[in-house]
Records
---
Amino acid sequence: MQLKRILVPLAGTSVDVEVLRVAIALGKPAKAEIVAIHVIEVRWNLPLDAILEPESERGEGVLDGAVKVAEQAGAHIETELVQAREAAAAIIDTARDRKSDLIVLGMPFRKRLGRVYVGKTVQGVYIGAHCAVLAYRQEETR
Amino acid sequence: MSDRGDNGPRDREAPSLEERATKAGSKIGDRRVRIVRPAAAEFRRRGGHYVATPRVDAAQSRVGRVYERARHILFGARLTSEEEAGERLSKKTGLAIMASDNISSSAYATEEAMRVLAFAGGAALALTMPIAIAVCVVLAVVILSESRVIRAYPNGGGSYIVAKDNHGVLPGLVAASALLIDYVLTVAVSSAAGVAAISSFVPAVHDHRVLWSLGLIALLTVGNLRGIREAGVIFAAPTYVYVLSLLGLIGYGLFRLGSGDMPVAVLPPDAFEPEGIEALTALLVLRAFASGSVGLTGSEAIANGVPNFKPPESRNAVITLVCMGTIFATLFLGITYLATRIGIAPDQFEFETVNSMLTRSLVGDGTPFYYLVQISTAIILLLAANTGFSGFPRLASVLADDRFMPRQFAFRGERLAFSFGIIALALMSAAVLAAFHGSVTELVPLYTIGVFVAFTLSQSGLVRRWWRLRNPGWRLSMAINTFGTIVTGTVLVVVAYTKFLYGAWMVLLVMPILVGLLFSINRHYRTVHDALLLDRPDEPIPVLKPPVVLIPVARLDRATLQAVAFARSISPTVRAVHIATTAESAEEFARRWRRWTSEVPLDVIESPYRSLLQPLLKYIERIDQRDDRPITVVLAEFVPRNWWEWILHSQTALRLKLSLLFRPNTIVIDVPYHTEDTGHGVTPRGPEDSAQ
């Protein structure tokens, strides 16, 4: 499979750097276009386009960090900041609009009730995406 | 499908650094807002506003990048405002930066007192030691009083703030102008004294001492433009080397005297008359005391720059102040004692300093220790100028904040230093130095007056403050400051009286002029402030009638077309005016204009003497008289692609802009036309002449 466009959703967690490096490693041989996206989830009691200063600042920080990681890895990435009600739907729709071939998702290692916990965003993208989805789970923390 | 957020029609028209595009989702309710920040690399969002990133200041052109690189090497990397706390001084670096003036005075205070006493003959030099003790007593009083200033005014400003707060604006400005003059003289005297110390062991330097001094001022300017902390780091080591080498010299000298090994005094190249040329009068002794009091200068700098210290600022400043006084007194008394005991006499023509002769007498000529003492003396004397460089810009910034000095003095440069103040100080001290031929003896009489004016005003100001506030312990504080006022006031009278004819009159003349200047600057700012002040915070935006727009046109071309299009976008009342030099060209231009458009009326003025600006200005004046709406002059200005192409164009628009700058009720709008402009938003109707 020739990868042309890869979408990397970043939530600002500890797995971001690793998942971005994985995406760059996958996309670099084919010179794939890599887009890092951060979705700000807007609560239902607020308008969708509400100006959320702290969240926007944090999002910009996450994407700036991604650009730096990519530069260190010798790659160029695009970034996109999005506000939506649900992150999964926004990721899926962005992937569709951008005609992405692959979504590389990161999962921080988390446990709930003794089992590894896969968040609803990962699940939602896994189920709803039109394209291939690669979920990268972080190594178990000791 | 996309649209921008519902921020209202007004916001939609105004371009912003951020665009919000709402995108439809694959399902109802999956809409998302894409936040597009094309300038995110230049402007970061923070707390509801934008913050410019370093990329904004980055040079674009190659020449600009080379210039930036040179600046970086010379002055260091830019510092953000948040890094100000990191630029504070510790006690160690603070002593080197802010106390170097006072400590370095020990290198010449003995000599200055001796040079006056020498007029009364060699025997009169025995009075140098009592004079040195008297100076140290005054210093102790000053330090005790200044520590009170620091505690009472931890935000700095020193004598100016104290005097202004307690005596009023005029005494405050007198103190400020006295200190400003003194800081200029500190830099001039210090660099001259530094060069004098070098010329003591490299005589060839003496003939070019002005040039050497100017070079050293330039060096110090660059060092200080790098920021106060870095200047402290650069200049700290030489200060401590000087202190340690002098302490070593004094210790060695005392050991030799104590062990009965009396050194042979080195004689000056040109000694004063042994019998003297003046009688030993009380006035002469007072003059010697006044000259020795030069050692008290610089002790106000710490109180002036308390905010430069790391927290706790006041405590650190007081500790530094006490250390400074102790070091100075030890060195001054030690040198004076040894010089008088050994029998060192000053040189008439300043070819060799007393310290140099004392060192040669004790450790021998050409020994490594001699060179260590001389070189460290030369360096500390130079670094003493740092006190001026830290004091003057800080005081000028306080004055600028109070609108007594131009606002530029309050502006911090890229390295958080008060760059404008530093450069102004360097230029003024260089001018003074050149005017006095780089001579320490010529400059010293000007010195110390200012500092004692400031001391006396701040001490008496504190007396009033304690009396007014009556805080716990006010009686002791008041007693200390009353004593300080009496002592410093007495020294001021002595210094002013004895040095008046030797140059102090110049300072006493300049001081009121400077006070007047500060007042007039303040008056200007107050007038401007009153004129610009909004009557109330919710002042409504006035509704103006569209202005009368005049477009001076030289020819019918793309630049004119763009200017006319712009003029019509801001007002329906647009009129073009053309100055022709002959009747034929006037006729021809009017014909072509009529053929191009009938929507914009044109006035053609024939100027038989070929003058361009005067007919235009008179025309604007007459139009203005006939209409109460503001006149707006829209200028079509062609901007060449390269800077050197400017000289190929007459720059009429530029000259017209300058002529209209001070004209009331006139708005001047420049519509630049770049050769790459394609006239976006302009619908050409076929101008027949596009030549430029």
---
Amino acid sequence: MDTFQETVFKLKKYWAERGCIIQEPYDVEVGAGTMAPETFLRVLGPKPYRVAYVQPSRRTADGRYGENPNRLYKHQQLQVILKPTPNDVIDQYLGSLKAIGIDLAKHDLKLEEDNWEAPTLGAWGVGWQVMLDGLEITQFTYFQQCGGFDLDLVPAEITYGLERLAAFLQGVDSVYDITWAPGFKYSDVRLADELQFSVYNFEMANVERLWRLLGEHEAECKELLAAYAKYPDKHRFPVLPTYDQVLKCSHLFNLLDARGAISVTERVGVIKRVRDLAVGTAKLWVDQQSLDAQQESAA
Amino acid sequence: MSLDFLLEIGTEEIPHWMIPKALDQLRAMYVGQLKADATPRRLAVWASDMVERQADSTRKIKGPGVMAPEQAVAAFARKHGADPSALVRNGDYYELHLAIPGRPMIDVLAETLPGNILGLQWPKTMYWTGGKTGPRFIRPIRWIVALLGDQVIPFEIAGVKSGNVTRGHRILGSSSIPVTTANYEAELRKSFVILSAHERRHKIETEASNLGAKIDADLLETLTFITEYPTAIRGDFDPAYLELPAEVLTTVMRHHQKYFAVESAPGRLAPHFVAVMNTSADPDGVVKHGNERVLRARFNDARFFWNVDQQKKLVDRGDDLSHVTFQAKLGTYLEKTNRVVELVKELGGNAHAQRAAELCKCDLTTEMVKEFTDLQGIIGGLYAKAQGEPEPVSQAIYEHYQPLSMEDSIPETPEGQIVALADKLDTLRGCFSVGLIPSGSKDPFALRRAAQGVVKILAEAKLDYLLDQLVTGELHAFMLERVQHYFREVRGYKYDEVNAVLASGVSTLADVEARLAALAGVRPTEDFEPLAAACKRIRNILKQAHFEGDGPLDQALLEPGPERDLANRLASFVMANESDYSKRLVAIAAFRPSVDLFFDKVLVNAPDPAVRTNRLTLLHKLFTEFSTIADFSEIVTSGESK
């Protein structure tokens, strides 16, 4: 039986062998692997790209103080982006399951319709949840739109829920019983994390300050977005730091939401504020990329 | 000579619920006997009577007139590559008849199939190659088999060339199988693909029933179209979970895991489930074990939600509803609740009904309903019961979303009926008042369903609310459409009977139904249709005469014979004032000979204006008396068409 980390190594190796860059997790809080710039920005524009990375993803409202065996404040996703989608993408995906020791001939595999939409990112796609013996182990999406842009090269996004997958492979009922490394359980590594962040997110985060921070990061982001048009050397313009500000806002929104500080009517408004920033940043990125491409072809 | 035709569109997994409609479209693609079937990964169409080539035809080209100069005539013929002697005279003109040989069918198909395939209508499509302007389909097309006889029909879609090679089951089958039109289905079967949806459905139903499953038709249909080789297995769960309400367990099994429930006796769940795999067997019990593990986690969640939810009673959740929006312009669920409580009072609901109205939306703030939204109402009812609310209150909460469809039954208890009615009426009135009126296929607030529910409850519970007092204006018209729909589609009355009854006014729906039943009962009798025809005649006469007066009948002006007889008969009919609809209709139908005789012998349009007015008055009174149950002039009689 493989440890949690062994399974992650195997998946990374498998996708590296299929031409993926193996990235490290993004270092700003995100709610899902999709939000990391390696996905959100890289899927835009005409440049092919292949990347795989583990992304710890924070879902503040899903925190359960470490008491629920299946729900986590922060879970680990293995995110794979194949742009453009290879024709045999599903076979490649099935190969990755074999690579981590699943003998598909002994299991029941179904692809069930599950479309994906992220209103804060102006993004949507169609796809499936991959069910293995009744367990959803992967979300598979063909992106159609991101940051409000129709995509030039449709990428496939493959998102493995690593805790679920590892619990399945190791035959344990609680994620906390997963063996992470020899001699160490998932609980040894992450339980304190789950408990303390649940306490903070639900009980102690200062709502007033969170609103203020949201306003500050939004202001920073807007200022940067507005500065692009007149900025002389577009190549140098900090689009990537602008996107970090979007991520900060999104995370603060989630924190406020977990605190129950956002009323239903406010909610729609805040989602729109974040989406406007995300869509604005996507525009800059696409523009900057196309200018860079023009320069490259001229040179 | 006719040839076998086969087309298989190989795709990635198509959403199960879209497949039957796609098959209907494929069958309609060509004239002739097309057969179609599908699995999630393939849409197949075939025929055995495809012609080898199209029939030859003649194209007629109109040429110059017969009086035209010879050179012009010759030039016309040459232009079309023909000798002037080939021209045919047609009246004053020359014509050239060009023989168009029929094209080989394989060429026609190669040209038209790509358009036909990409022209299929889907609820939502995607592109996967060539950017936004690339071809769109429901999921990427990965292979195409296109055969006419033993020839491949050559074409290409999205970079995929048609051929004669199909693919089997993802895991169990071969990924490259050359086929012919004759062995296609058999080759698929060898590769663990059962092409026939009918056969898959039957396999699931038989195997699942043998394992004790309670067959659910919708789930059976879903499973038929998410599998290529279905096999049922039975799993178990800890009987301790049977403490949770059956509704919760069943929802988890059916909606979240697509399992059939197993019952030990009717209405009693057993600690087992039946799952349907997309594979041939589970010899080591690995799949069973995996499914049991998932279900255990789900049931644990449900138990956790139940326990957490009991920490705050429904009655203490009222204020929480002020944080849940019902609709932006119509406020929160707290405001809706207050309106529904008032409406229940207005409708004469008792204390239990009022209490149920007060609590009925409180379950929206529970963890259980947040997780299992389909169980709204049901959870509220179960919690109310567990928290000691009286039975009529908990039952009314439990059933107040009913009926969810035309087939669903209405709430059983009077309290449930009144709360369900008030809840739906409030939604309808509210949405109509802020302009959220359904149009065409757009009905985001499911107002048609709400209105249909109101109609069904009013009619089937025989509630004595007058429709006119419940709804007004545009909403009234909207409800009338639903009333028509209900009596036609659900109760099976003929459309003209429904029109006739509604045209003579709507009081309560129970009354509408009683009149309809009486009308349908008298309709087959021999006097009825001629009388209906006579009523139509009367209506036309009154309309042409612009006669609306309703003065008294002047007995002195009545001519002895048919006219006086008819008037006397009408007078005794009015006197009798039969209140039983059937008897009354029978009595009306019995007027037929008198009416016929009147029209035979009496001239309505009499020269004397006073006599004429008197006769119109007689007809008007007759028409009014006849129309109290139904307006017979709306009845379509034999010889007329719809």
